């Protein structure tokens, strides 16, 4: 991102939505009159406390302003939670949500933090009935009567503490339409305990007539998949927040979260009646698994037939300590999806949103497509916002693998093979005021004769050590070292990205917005692999300028190999740009 622009990715630059205090799942639809209708779960207390209920609000100016909240359910009634909207062709708006209609006040289960023994939990927003209300005036008012959707019991229901007489469940899978039917994803919970939902699996509600049936009592519902079991995690007892999407070939795709360090995926080729065995989601069939903690991971299909996946691009197994897997939801990453032969292929990811405070958790998004523009809503549980998305970011991901060109915007220095081999130093302009949001990127073509640590690939430090250096370290990895003369930072690439005797492409991105260091090796963003949870690293907010004017860069001052080309940019490359320049080749 260029330094002289407002960084739209910073969530503080978004527009706030109205709420009481706690606010979650700000899901939006465009009504028949062209306005945005947002529904959410809110309350004056914290998540799960008494008084939690569902509300709606309308924007007539694409999220700039919003009307006062309208109660779909009042705060004084039983818990009403996890609202999901749907607009049908006739203009009616439905909202589906979980309702504790029996007003159960306690539920037994294990301790959240895994301590031995049991406790009576007073959180009762994850049990009851899936219900709906509707609006025939575009969300200004809601039907007085709520309607209950019958949900078929599975084996996981019959062995809960209430033996299935009370269902434990909740849903975040916004309704979607495929081949004339509506699908809603949700999770069935077997027990409460470590991490709250200690055991869960996914199911779907399908209606084949809600799009045209105006009598709510005549709407037909089916619980899927067929049989006695839902979609379960490949590893571990937790698989929830199932989010389905319709594919261009008529199939269904579902992604959901686990506690194993990856989201999971499954396909249905028969309208949801059966599903492929869930597996860890991968960027391509048989390829690298996507890393993701215990957080919302949603898929959205746009009008162009392409997809977007929201996730957090890091992960490790928390099967033994599932209550720890909720952390690190900042930044939020996305991958662009392109369908080939009935399978979604995901791009290398980009940062979509971040907060300056790493502890802030950004989650439960919804995507809006309106007039060719894209927007995203999100919440950090106490503030919900809407943000415009730079469509170039999405288009870049959708074009990965096809785009093969070198971008020159922000280019500060370019060295060819001869200049890299000359041994000369090259004067640099000022750049990299990182504490002020400045960024820079280093792109290299190199071939290594030896992978010994301690080789210097590029050095732009002065006698006092201020500047940056790129060096080799153990296990075929690279390290970027940064110093402003008072403080410093470093981050290592994944192990094994360097190979002796091969021509390779490496891009190092120092992004002063979210304060991240990224390595992209031969078109693949480092994600930590099996060795570590994170492939991207943070530097501190006080780290200042690392590229003072007049400093010189030495190319390959002590490299057992050859540097074939170098480019230095005074801005953060996108990952898509790094991929395109790798595919363009050394002479590109």
UniProtKB/TrEMBL annotation:
UniProt GO BP: ganglioside catabolic process; oligosaccharide catabolic process
GO MF annotation: an example: exo-alpha-sialidase activity
UniProt domain Sialidase: residue ranges: 133-373
GO cellular component terms, semicolon-separated: cytoplasm; membrane
Catalytic activity: Hydrolysis of alpha-(2->3)-, alpha-(2->6)-, alpha-(2->8)- glycosidic linkages of terminal sialic acid residues in oligosaccharides, glycoproteins, glycolipids, colominic acid and synthetic substrates
A Pfam family that the UniProt record links to this protein: Laminin_G_3
Domain of life according to the entry: Bacteria
EC nos: 3.2.1.18
Similarity comment: family membership: Belongs to the glycosyl hydrolase 33 family.
Protein name as it appears in the record: exo-alpha-sialidase
Gene source species: Cohnella fermenti
């Amino acid at each position: 991102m260029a330094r002289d622009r407002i960084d739209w990715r910073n969530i503080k630059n978004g527009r706030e939505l109205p709420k009481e205090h706690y606010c979650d799942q700000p899901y939006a639809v465009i009504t028949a009159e062209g306005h945005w209708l947002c529904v959410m779960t809110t309350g004056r207390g914290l998540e799960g406390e008494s008084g939690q209920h569902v509300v709606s609000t309308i924007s007539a100016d694409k999220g700039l302003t919003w009307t006062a909240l309208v109660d779909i359910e009042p705060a004084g009634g039983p818990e009403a939670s996890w609202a999901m909207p749907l607009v049908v062709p006739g203009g009616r708006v439905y909202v589906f949500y979980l309702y504790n209609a029996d007003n159960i006040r306690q539920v037994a289960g294990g301790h959240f933090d895994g301590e031995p023994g049991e406790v009576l939990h007073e959180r009762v927003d994850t049990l009851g009935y899936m219900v709906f209300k509707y609006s025939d005036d575009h969300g200004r008012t809601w039907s007085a009567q709520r309607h209950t959707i019958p949900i078929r019991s599975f084996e996981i229901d019959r062995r809960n503490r209430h033996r299935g007489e009370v269902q434990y469940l909740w849903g975040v899978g916004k309704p979607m339409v495929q081949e004339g039917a509506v699908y809603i994803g949700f999770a069935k919970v077997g027990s409460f305990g470590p991490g709250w939902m200690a055991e869960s699996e996914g199911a779907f509600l399908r209606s084949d007539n809600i799009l045209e049936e105006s009598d709510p009592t005549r709407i037909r519902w089916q619980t899927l998949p067929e049989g006695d079991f839902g979609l379960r995690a490949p590893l571990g007892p937790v698989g929830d927040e199932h989010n389905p999407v319709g594919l261009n070939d008529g199939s269904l795709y579902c992604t959901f979260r686990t506690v194993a360090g990856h989201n999971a995926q499954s396909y249905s080729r028969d309208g949801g009646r059966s599903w492929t065995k869930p597996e860890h989601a991968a960027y391509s069939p048989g390829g690298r698994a996507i890393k993701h903690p215990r957080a919302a991971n949603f898929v959205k299909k746009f009008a162009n037939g392409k997809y977007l996946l929201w996730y957090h691009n890091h992960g490790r197994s928390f099967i033994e300590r599932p209550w720890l897997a909720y952390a690190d939801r900042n930044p939020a990453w996305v991958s662009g999806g392109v369908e080939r032969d009935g399978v979604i292929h995901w791009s290398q990811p980009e940062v979509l949103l971040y907060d300056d405070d790493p502890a802030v958790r950004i989650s439960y998004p919804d995507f809006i497509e309106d007039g060719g523009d894209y927007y995203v809503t999100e919440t950090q549980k106490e503030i919900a916002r809407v943000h415009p998305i730079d469509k170039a970011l999405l288009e870049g991901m959708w074009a990965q693998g096809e785009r093969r060109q070198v971008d020159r915007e922000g280019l500060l220095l370019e060295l060819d093979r001869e200049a890299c081999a000359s041994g000369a130093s090259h004067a640099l302009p000022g750049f990299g005021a990182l504490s002020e949001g400045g960024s820079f990127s280093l792109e290299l073509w190199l071939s290594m004769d030896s992978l010994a640590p301690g080789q210097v690939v590029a050095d732009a430090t002065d006698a006092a050590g201020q500047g940056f250096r790129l060096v080799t370290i153990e296990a075929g990895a690279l390290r970027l070292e940064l110093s402003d003369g008072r403080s410093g930072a470093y981050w290592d690439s994944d192990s094994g990205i360097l190979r002796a005797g091969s021509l390779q492409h490496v891009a190092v991105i120092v992004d002063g917005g979210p304060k991240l260091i990224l390595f992209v090796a031969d078109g693949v963003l480092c994600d930590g692999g099996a060795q570590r949870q994170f492939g991207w690293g943070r530097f501190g907010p006080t780290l200042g300028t690392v590229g003072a004017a007049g400093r010189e860069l030495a190319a390959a001052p002590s490299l057992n190999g050859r540097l074939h080309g170098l480019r230095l940019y005074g801005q953060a490359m996108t990952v898509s740009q790094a991929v395109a320049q790798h595919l363009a080749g050394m002479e590109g």
